[in-house]
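Changelog-adjacent note: as of this version, every example in the card shows the full chain rather than a window. The one below runs 241 residues end to end.
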Amino acid sequence: MKALLHLIVRVISKEEILDLDAVSSPPAHLKHLLLEGRLERLPPWIGSLQNLATLDLRSSHLKEDPLSSLEALPNLLSLCLIMVYVGEELCFRHGCFLKLNVLGISGIPKLNLIKIENGSMICIKKLYLKECPELKRIPEGMQYLTSLQELRLKDMSEELLQRIKAGGERVNLLHIPIIRHYNSTIKFSENIEIQAPVGDGDSSSRKVENEKKDAAENFLAVEVPLLPFRVVLNEDGAPEH
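Full-length structure tokens:
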């Protein structure tokens, strides 16, 4: 157990609660962890995994913001949160998740606010948001993510999309080279270029490129080096490998 690097724990049925409190001494060298199933709380030892590089939490349905238990992980590179939380807000605090490269958030139906404080996720490169219908604005503090290369949205609210397209979030998103949206209902995908305000001389050169995609497209596929499996946020929120 002490030399274990990869660990996947899943419940057998959706009604079952994943109880990991009995694990008093988790593998000290663990690098990749996937927990799938309902949790009353995150195991108290999860914050002690100093070597953890990838963490995938699915169907946890936690009542409290899970980030406070994860933000101290010093070497976390990839964090995937699928149906992990039943609350309304997530907060990425200053000085936390300093090595994180990839973040995926999916299937949190009541989530209406994501806060990103200055000095958080300073190395983030890819951000994926999927099926959070109450999120009507981009995460607060996106302007601080100066290393972000790609923002991908799937089945998000029309209000959020229109704010981006109309330029309402222009100042907070201009630094991101790729912004992409996919609507699985009508099988429609588009690259979004930030629209300039009315009167901006560059507005004529800005455009939105639309293209039809195959029904099987899963553009929220997160592939992370060192991860022994492929994390896919697919059409129904279920995991694929």
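Structural remarks: The longest strand covers residues 178-183.
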